From TrEMBL:
Its cofactor is heme. SUPFAM superfamilies: Cytochrome P450. Pathway: Secondary metabolite biosynthesis. This is Cytochrome P450.
Amino acid sequence: MEIDLTSTAGIALQCTLATGVILLLRSYTKKKRSAYPPGPKGLPFIGNVLDMPRSWPCKTFSEWSKTYGDIIYLNMIGKPMIIINSKKAAKDLLDKRSNIYSDRPKLNSLGASVMLSNLLSRVGWDKSLVLLPYGNEWRQQRKLIVQDLAPSECHKYYGLQEREMRLLVRSVLTDPGSLIPEIRLRIGTIIVRTAYGYDVKSIDDPLLANGLQTIHDGSIAAEPGRFLVDFIPWLKYVPPWLPGTGFLQTAKRWKKTFNDATWKPIQFCRDNLHNGKMLMPNICGNVYQNAGWDLDADVERQLGLAAATILGGGLDSSISTAMSFFMQMILNPEVQKKAQTELDKVVGNDRLPAITDRPDLPYINSVMTEVYRIAAPFPLSLPHASNQDDVYEGMLIPKGSVILPNVWHMLHDPEQYPQPMKFLPERYNGQESEMEKVKDVVFGFGRRVCPGNHFAEGTFFSLIATTLATCDILPGLDENGNEIMPNPEAYVSTTIITKGSLFSRSTYSLPPRRLLEPDLSMSGTLFTSPSGLVFQCALAAGALLLVRSIAKRGPSNLPPGPKGVPIIGNVLQMPKLWPWKTFSVWAKQYGDIIHLNMLGQPLIIINSRKVAADLLDKRSNIYSDRPKLEMISLVGWDRSLVLLPYGHEWRQQRKLIAQDFSPSHCPQYYGLQEKEARVFVRNMLEDSKSFLPELTLRMGAIMLRTTYGCQVDSVNDPLLANGLQTIHDGSVAAEPGWFLVYLIPWLKYLPPWLPGTGFLQTAKKWRQTFHDATWGPIEFCKANFHTGKMLMPNICGNIYQDHGWELDADTERQLAMAASNALTGGLDSNVSSTMTFFMFMILNPDTQKKAQAELDRVVGVDRLPSINDRPNLPYIRSIMTEVYRFAPAFPLSIPHTSTQDDIYEDMLIPKGSVILPNVWHMLHDPDMYPNPMEFIPERFQGQASQMEMVKDVVFGFGRRVCPGNHFAEGTFFSLIATTLATCNILPGLDEMGHGKLPDPLAYTSTTISFPEAFPVRLRARSRQAQILLSEAPDNV
């Protein structure tokens, strides 16, 4: 995305950043490099900020451990961060040296998944037990609650825990859809009753509801740099009426909720010390009783904060483990049966299990432990901080380092836990010592270990034992009576992990959890290091310049959109994953056309096909350009057809390939497309596990043969492999903000030896691959004009032939660039659509049967379908179109750019705006497509005009419409028709031989979106079908 660097804001931003870089480099040269632990090489000034993973940091850190070892060092704009990936290192440091590592990170520090923002102190959370710095106040709070939660005291609450878990099971048996609310209510009741002696009446009871809301608010504030004040701490002193200070109102609102959640329960205790309404025993009541029912103000304040932490710390983690338990029982019925056998043997059928049965139920304890291991609720634990410099195995851990224990990696270490991704309670052999090794990691380290771990285990044990003793846990059913299996890898990447996708049974149903987003989000914070101060000053100067420039401007009639903040506009609100879905939600508030300010760069989101047609089609003279991306330019991709600026060169390239891809010329390639589709199906019948590699090979073979006349037999053939690598490189480069040079374009002029310019080496490597992918096939053509190895017809061969086998240098360069786009543009999009087709045939067997009936009626069973049959197969074409509609390969199309100011419906679209058509939203508009999240080919009623309306959106807009759309449809049709005519498409099998259904909502959040990988089986429909496939020619 190109930022207008000539604007006042752009110049200010460049000057301030340049100043910061220069000052930092001067200080950098004066520093002596210390013996820090190894880690990825960072950039000047910002260190490893860009290396930080956006989701699932625990898994990224786990991968890094293979390169850097058990202890990894990251520089987060001058703030040291230490990732601990081994149990041994965690014990050595956090347990054995707990005098050094028991602190929490100070405010204004920058970290990974859990960091304390400025809002924590403004709201008051930083004074609660779990986030309190190590010291006297922390010891005082912990002492107030730890005695009641000790193993010797937990028995006082067994009856409460057992009662609530039995009520939970009874309620969910009555109403399967109530599982999540019921878990929240019952676990919340246990904790509120234990902490305050208050008997909760409902989920809306204020004493529980305020606690739940505070947990939600805290999860937002704990996200690293979620608010701008995390990045610029002095903003907390700005008047609350100033634009961009909405966080102050947010903090004020949250503080009231936090105060209510903390002090209203204490007030209840005070008011009911002697009237019997406060049920004893309870933690606060015991403290009041031991103090003669009268506490001094400071002790009462510490008690209120400590008690509030019990609810905040225990509720969501217990929900996470409960959900994981239900999921694993559905996926592992043999484990469920074994656990039930143990319960029947030990407890019998005449009573319900009690927590006191726990020592006699080693397999139930093993199931509990394996849930903790496979899905620890805190994958990265809570961060510690070092209070002095320390040396460990010759490596310096600086004072003030943020220490992140990677619990997920420790519990998925294959040397410790063979087959770590499998749920295997048997791995502990019923040995308590082996189970304790897991819980020693899950519940924290050193002096910051969770004080309520034994209590939490009692609640979880009671839930597991009560449920398994009384119920069978089964997968739920969809509307057609088909089982819905959970995805064991679909967890939400948050501070506390929870299941993000649906799984259910006839008894249990999990409604989706709504993940609420705050008004502002940001991945980055500031702190008090020298480089941090430089950056703050630089931003402050930039802010002042920008405010001055804004004061001189009049109001503009830009399209509506979310309110931004000074300097950076809406950068903080840009969604990291599946942006098309966020833009779709925004459409309900802001309408069909949305304006975003990305550091001064206007970004226009188009959410309706009418607006897209009005602008991109009818005004294509204005909207046919492409935005400039610096990394794309460094590699050279900006000279290829799809990314080329609109103009003479673009017209020249398009003209070279458009004729061969026109509807009248596509039939010359039908035989090739049909042949490769038949080979694909034949090979899949022999080895269904080769689905994705085989699909990639066949799509690549079609494109290379069509474009260059060359045949490939393997995905490792250099002519195909280089193209595939270029596609991969391009998908990385196309991610917004992936490289710092996108935000600071002048960095491309820096010498490549300068630290932080690794993107220059990356661009150089990618440029070579792109060169090989572009010119290798052209060299093949030129070397085989007359040898017979270049098979005619093909696009490049036709051009050379038309020019007497001799092209001038410029035309040859344009042909090479255009031809390389035919491969890269057509391969991955067809793979994505084909994967979606197979997925929905598995999930919709009735659709599959209906399509097969049409094929049998029109084509018969004595020959294979051909592309020429397409006009007579409206239901097959409807399936194709519904695939395109449900899962467009490019959910946000490819961005356009406006070449001049334009007015649309009284709204200004500035020159240079980046235009993003939200194709996904247009094709999921319920007014156009009722029940848009359902796969319904019948919605088109076999009418070509209705199908064309979908393809008019899928294949692009205006003058930038895909030139190969008719060719792509031929390939896709041939593969669908051939597969359905000859095979039944079935779900693949897992290792236990059970059918594994794909998740229809699990798509990648990439420029080209793919379904998550899933297994497929093909079964020949008849012996005749097998004969027809075997007799199909291998050559065309």
